[in-house]
Amino acid sequence: GAAAFSHDGLAWTPVGWGVTASIHAAAFQETSGFALAGAGGFVARSLNGFDWEIGEPVGSQSWEALSAGTGWLVALGGDGATALSADGQIWQTPAPGAPEGRFRAGSVDASGALAMDDAGHVSIFPLPPLALVLSDDQAVELGGEVTLTVEAGGTGPFSYTWRRDGEAVHSGTEAPLWLSGVGREAIGEYQVTIENEAGETTGDPVFVTVLTRYADWREERFSDPNDPAAAPGADPDGTGIPNLLFHALDLPAGNPRSGLPEADIETVSPAGGAVPLFGVLDTGEENGRYLTLTFPRAIGADDVVYTPEASGGLGEWTSLPEENSLRVVRQGTRELVTVRDTVSLEEADGKRFLRLRVELLD
């Protein structure tokens, strides 16, 4: 159970952990740190070589070899057992596609996992894909370009399928996804599925936001930006809804009111369900019924300030604090935001008013 670690090969520090298991193999890789394996299924890992986490035994066999590479840790046992782990904590056993044998040594490289048995026979088997490094969330100007990248681990060659909100947008053998001349339809959650002969894996989601200002919205709809009908407060279609709200709330041009929640007052659940324009949240506590307001908010409209406000008599209005937001539900290229009042209906004798103030930044 003794172990010691050094940063230069000369000065060594013992690991004091009270482990009595016989340790047979050690490995290191940047993604998962240090790992040890030994008798009785013993496994342990450390990110720095000094602070260790001892995992649950992986089986009861004796691990004779431990190797690392392409994002994987591969453990080989003297009784033929095999195991894979991407982080040194969660292990999959047996390793898919592994050969049979009483193993004594192993290694990992881009061609796969190599296993040598006690008779000197060498086998190579492919390792499943991993999504090691993914792009961060992206924000791009309308008409701009987006590149989403992924670094694959495991054994190549790989194929990649990128999906936006579950719909495939690109498939091929090249890892990056390039988008150019992006419109608001590019807004969404992107995920990549990586496949090879040993299996497939899907990476964590990456969100792409397309920044759209009122000037962009106006340019798409008016030939002359100086036309009075193109002003933020104008209502050229006579809908009763000014231009600014079409942009800020991401309302459809033909039938803007279809883009608003129903106005009926309903009971609202913080966990989900109906999202009426106005509702009542019942917390179940004494004096615990609150008026709620749900409004759409265009994703990427960073030139707009949205301020929900409350009043007891339509005279003085007070901004609702951010913590009064109950939920935000994405709906295509916009979000539905539900906020609640700060004063209960019981405390206000049932008379409360909520509104949304929308302002365009200079």
* Strand-pairing-aware structural class: mainly beta
Low-confidence segments, given as residue ranges, are: none
Beta strand count: 31
Give the count of helical stretches: 2
Shape: elongated
Please compute the radius of gyration using only Cα atoms: 29 Å
Query: Helical residue percent?
Result: under 10%
Taking the sheet with the most strands, its summary is: 6 strands, mixed
Task: Give the amount of beta strand, in percent.
Answer: 35-45%
Q: N-to-C terminal Cα separation, in Å?
A: 67 Å
Give the rounded overall mean pLDDT. 91
What is this structure's SSE topology?
Layout: E1 4-5, E2 13-14, E3 23-29, E4 33-38, E5 43-46, E6 52-54, E7 63-69, E8 72-77, E9 82-85, E10 91-92, E11 103-109, E12 112-117, E13 122-125, E14 130-134, E15 138-141, E16 146-148, E17 150-153, E18 159-164, E19 167-172, E20 177-179, E21 188-196, E22 199-202, E23 206-211, H1 214-221, H2 243-249, E24 266-268, E25 278-282, E26 289-298, E27 304-311, E28 318-319, E29 325-331, E30 334-340, E31 353-360
Parallel strand pairs: 15-23, 24-25
Antiparallel strand pairs: 1-2, 3-4, 4-5, 5-6, 7-8, 8-9, 9-10, 11-12, 12-13, 14-17, 16-20, 18-19, 18-21, 21-22, 21-23, 25-26, 26-30, 27-28, 27-31, 29-30
